[in-house]
């Protein structure tokens, strides 16, 4: 169609904060600017399978830029370990080794760096993965916000695992490991500018052992995994639906939304389905194995409240729909850009 | 949450819908004049559960959407100034003006901060005396007491570095404008519960009487909305045209006296242009002359820079309810929440954005 | 328009010289925030208020809230009557 001047135009020439929020803007940036000519087209996965010796290795990398750096339930150090360990796990891999890189801003208190590093060590130890190498750079004051942490993980595929975002099949059961929205709400509450105060803690935790139990219970019947981090459960489900070419139907009433998460979302006009998580996962499992996987999930500290939230359909491929509380249906869309508190 | 969850009960929702089916014998067109209500209706799919003849039209109830283009352009121009810290409710940041949006200003180095409350903007001004802090005071009557309080606080503290860019609008003149339109199809209104929590509903009584339309003050949860629709349809079926209050837990007939006093003290009624509709007499609030020192438009003399709306945007028809987003050629193609051509696609509560995020694409409307 | 969320007042305070400038802490199911209570002079600790952008605009009337629900509950459940007690799910 013809667009004549004057056109109210959206910003297209600069990177926006919203480009980093795990929603449509980010997908656009990756698809148009970053992946072409760099990565072969294929389903968007959390980690890559690469040929390695006679077998395969799994690789993943992630950079962490959270504000505030310390929040209830974690800090940028533990988050950096859990994030990469979990991305490996979402490909059915057990973590073998981690690399750690810091970008430090001139003026960062050494004590803070020590606390963050200690937190990295505790998190890596509890996930059972060694930090084997790393790098540290310092930039001038104002050139970075305190500290950025990058972790790169090397993983080994779990025996029997055939997990891929593209393996969802019609009929699959959709499982969710735990309550949603806790990480994003904890971060919001810890940010001074909103003036919120709560006891809610981030759900940040390693999911590698949970995934190992699930793979042991189901083998190749465990089709797809995703940890709904930035962009929330809505983005994770949309990515799975797109990568697998299937539809996903969820039951809104089945979603575990803790009261403080629901309250923060009501206050700021956000959708709990768009709020970030750092310690839960969503799984697509063939129906015969669903019971065993659910039992395996609940048999551990990470997912005592694991539950069925929906099913995969052949209809409406690439789309996620929710049955609403009052019994109607709606499409669950990805977050567009940055989550902005609204008044109306 | 208490006072929210009880009003989302699926069993009671079905009972109300059953009752509505019994009561409704003729087709009726009803407008909700509140973006929050539009959001609940579309997000919960309530309109799809209504009896076939009951049609909901989503009125000009999103303050972000009706903020005039010229005002967005002024905000963008002020926010780009190096001495300014521009504070705003989050939903104004993506509204396209004719020279860009506030998010774009931020990406180019502008100091733009999202605040939850206008009182937070006052605090920022106190903490940063070296900055000119401007707050973008948009909204309906609901938001006016808070915005008035920010001005009163700033005045009490003698803050010389705090101003507000005011673009307030009022609901009753908009309802009257809709009813006066020759092609009006709306036979009943759901009035916005939180607007009435502040203003009461005596203003609506002459409108209901003069135009013979039922007006039901309605809350925001699924049960509130279905009951509000039921009460409206009952009146229509019985030939009544009264103001009724479904949202009695929060709304008294005379509203909130203290809040209304503050609005009267700080603001004065003015003519206001509504984006997509045009100028409506006495439909807005501007700063009262005695608070002129806090007027950002005076402090930062901004020339009108904008030109006009996108020619293919039918926002006016959509806000007046004569067309649905899915009737618009640009909807979902050239115009999406990512690249909005008009205001109703911007805020989550804008009719077009609410339709889009609920997956109501032109090709799928009407199919199961 | 106008997100207004009910929360319970857990604390009320005011400057000694300006008892009318009341602020309070309001609890929203585990999220607490400072809220301006100037427009709801009648609201006390334990009361629920509707909060919009950090300002309480109305005190929730508990009796009216219960009455609204009672009216809806009084509508006979046609489907449940047909299906019996186990069929009362949507």
From TrEMBL, chain A:
Cross-referenced InterPro entries: HypE (IPR011854), PurM-like_C_dom (IPR010918), PurM-like_C_sf (IPR036676), PurM-like_N (IPR016188), PurM-like_N_sf (IPR036921)
Top-rank taxon, per record: Bacteria
Pfam family, one: AIRS
Domain named PurM-like N-terminal: residues: 45-155
Signal peptide: none
GO biological process: protein maturation
Domain PurM-like C-terminal: start-end pairs: 169-321
NCBIfam families from the UniProt entry: hypE (TIGR02124)
Similarity-based family: Belongs to the HypE family.
Protein name: Hydrogenase expression/formation protein HypE
Organism of origin: Phytohabitans suffuscus
Automatic annotation (TrEMBL), chain B:
Domain of life of the source: Bacteria
Family matches, as InterPro entries: Hyd_form_HypD (IPR002780), HypD_1 (IPR042243), HypD_2_sf (IPR042244)
Any one Pfam family match given in the protein's UniProt record, by short name: HypD
UniProt-recorded Gene Ontology molecular function terms: 4 iron, 4 sulfur cluster binding; carbon monoxide binding; iron ion binding
Signal peptide: none
Keywords: Iron, Metal-binding
GO terms of biological process kind: protein maturation
PANTHER family, alphabetized: HYDROGENASE MATURATION FACTOR HYPD, HYDROGENASE PROTEIN ASSEMBLY PROTEIN HYPD
Record-stated family: Belongs to the HypD family.
Protein name according to UniProt: Hydrogenase formation protein HypD
Lineage: Bacteria, Bacillati, Actinomycetota, Actinomycetes, Micromonosporales
UniProtKB/TrEMBL annotation, chain C:
InterPro entries to which the protein is assigned, alphabetical: Hydgase_assmbl_chp_CS (IPR019812), Hydrogenase_HupF/HypC (IPR001109)
UniProt GO MF annotations: carbon dioxide binding; iron ion binding
Pfam families attached to this UniProt entry: HupF_HypC
GO annotation (BP), single: protein maturation
SUPFAM superfamilies: HupF/HypC-like
Recorded family membership: Belongs to the HupF/HypC family.
Name listed for the protein in its UniProt record: Hydrogenase assembly protein HypC
Organism expressing this protein natively: Phytohabitans suffuscus
């Amino acid at each position: 169609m013809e667009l004549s001047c004057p056109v109210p135009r959206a910003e297209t020439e600069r990177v926006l904060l919203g480009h980093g929020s795990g929603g449509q803007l980010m997908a656009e940036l990756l698809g148009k600017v970053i992946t072409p000519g760099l990565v072969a087209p294929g389903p968007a996965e959390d980690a890559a399978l690469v040929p390695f010796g006679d077998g395969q290795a799994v690789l993943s990398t992630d950079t962490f830029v959270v504000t505030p750096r310390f929040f209830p339930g974690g800090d940028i150090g533990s988050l950096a370990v859990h994030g990469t360990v979990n991305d490996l796990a979402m490909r059915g891999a057990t973590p073998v080794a981690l690399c750690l890189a810091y970008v430090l801003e001139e003026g960062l208190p050494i004590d803070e760096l020590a606390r963050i590093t200690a937190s990295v060590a505790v998190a890596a130890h509890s996930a059972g993965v060694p930090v084997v190498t790393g790098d540290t750079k310092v930039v001038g004051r104002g050139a970075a916000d305190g500290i950025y942490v990058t972790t790169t993980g090397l993983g080994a595929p779990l025996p029997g695992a055939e997990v891929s975002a593209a393996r969802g099949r019609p009929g699959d059961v959709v499982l969710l490991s735990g309550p949603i929205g806790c990480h994003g709400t904890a971060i919001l509450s810890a940010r001074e500018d909103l003036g919120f105060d709560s006891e809610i803690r981030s759900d940040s935790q390693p999911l590698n052992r949970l995934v190992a139990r699930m793979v042991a219970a189901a083998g190749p019947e465990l089709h797809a995994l995703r940890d709904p981090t930035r962009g929330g459960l809505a983005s994770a489900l949309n990515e799975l639906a797109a990568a697998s070419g299937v539809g996903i139907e969820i039951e809104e009433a089945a979603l575990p939304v803790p009261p403080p998460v629901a309250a923060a979302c009501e206050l700021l006009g956000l959708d709990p389905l768009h709020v970030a998580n750092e310690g839960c996962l969503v799984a697509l499992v063939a129906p015969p194995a669903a019971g065993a996987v659910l039992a395996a999930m609940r048999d551990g500290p990470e997912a005592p409240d694991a539950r069925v939230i929906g099913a995969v359909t052949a209809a409406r491929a690439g789309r996620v729909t929710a049955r609403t509380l009052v019994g109607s249906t709606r499409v669950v869309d990805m977050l567009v850009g940055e989550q902005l508190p609204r008044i109306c | 949450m208490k006072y929210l969850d009880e009003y989302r009960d699926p069993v009671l929702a079905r009972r109300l819908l059953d009752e509505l089916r019994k009561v409704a014998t003729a087709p009726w067109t009803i407008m909700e004049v509140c973006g929050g209500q539009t959001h609940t209706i579309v997000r919960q799919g309530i309109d799809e559960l209504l009896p076939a003849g009951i049609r909901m039209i989503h009125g000009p109830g999103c303050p972000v959407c009706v903020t005039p283009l010229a005002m967005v352009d002024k905000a963008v121009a002020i926010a780009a100034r190096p001495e300014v810290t521009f504070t705003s409710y989050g939903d104004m940041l993506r509204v396209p003006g004719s020279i860009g949006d506030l998010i774009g200003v931020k990406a180019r180095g502008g100091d733009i901060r999202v605040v939850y409350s206008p009182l937070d903007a006052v605090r920022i001004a106190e903490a940063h005396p070296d900055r000119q802090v401007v707050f973008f005071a948009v909204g309906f009557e609901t938001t006016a007491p808070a915005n008035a309080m920010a001005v009163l606080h700033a005045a009490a503290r003698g803050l010389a570095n705090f101003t507000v860019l005011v673009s307030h609008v009022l609901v009753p003149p908009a309802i009257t404008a809709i009813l006066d339109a020759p092609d009006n199809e709306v036979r009943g209104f759901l009035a916005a519960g939180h607007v009435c929590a502040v203003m009461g509903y005596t203003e609506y009584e002459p409108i209901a009487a003069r135009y013979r339309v039922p007006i039901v003050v309605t809350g925001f949860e699924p049960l509130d909305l279905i009951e509000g629709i039921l009460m409206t349809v009952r009146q229509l079926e019985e030939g009544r045209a009264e103001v009724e209050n479904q949202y009695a837990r929060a709304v008294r007939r005379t509203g909130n006296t203290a809040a209304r006093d503050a609005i009267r003290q700080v603001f004065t009624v003015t003519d206001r242009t509504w984006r997509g509709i045009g100028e409506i007499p006495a439909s807005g609030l501007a700063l009262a002359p005695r608070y002129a020192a806090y007027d950002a438009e005076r402090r930062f003399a901004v020339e009108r820079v904008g030109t006009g709306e996108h020619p293919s945007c039918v926002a006016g028809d959509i806000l007046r309810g004569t067309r649905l987003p899915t009737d618009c050629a640009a909807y979902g193609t050239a115009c999406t929440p990512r690249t909005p051509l008009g205001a109703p696609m911007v805020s989550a509560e804008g009719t077009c954005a609410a339709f889009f995020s609920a997956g109501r694409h032109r090709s799928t409307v009407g199919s199961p | 328009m106008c997100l207004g969320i009910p929360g319970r007042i857990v604390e009320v305070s005011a400057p000694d010289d300006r008892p009318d400038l009341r602020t309070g802490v309001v609890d929203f199911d585990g999220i607490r925030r400072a809220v301006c209570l100037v427009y709801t002079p009648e609201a006390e600790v334990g009361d629920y208020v509707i909060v919009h952008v950090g300002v309480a605009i109305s005190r929730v009337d508990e009796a009216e809230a219960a009455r609204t629900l009672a009216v809806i509950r009084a509508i006979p459940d046609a489907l449940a009557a047909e299906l019996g007690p186990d069929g009362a799910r949507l």
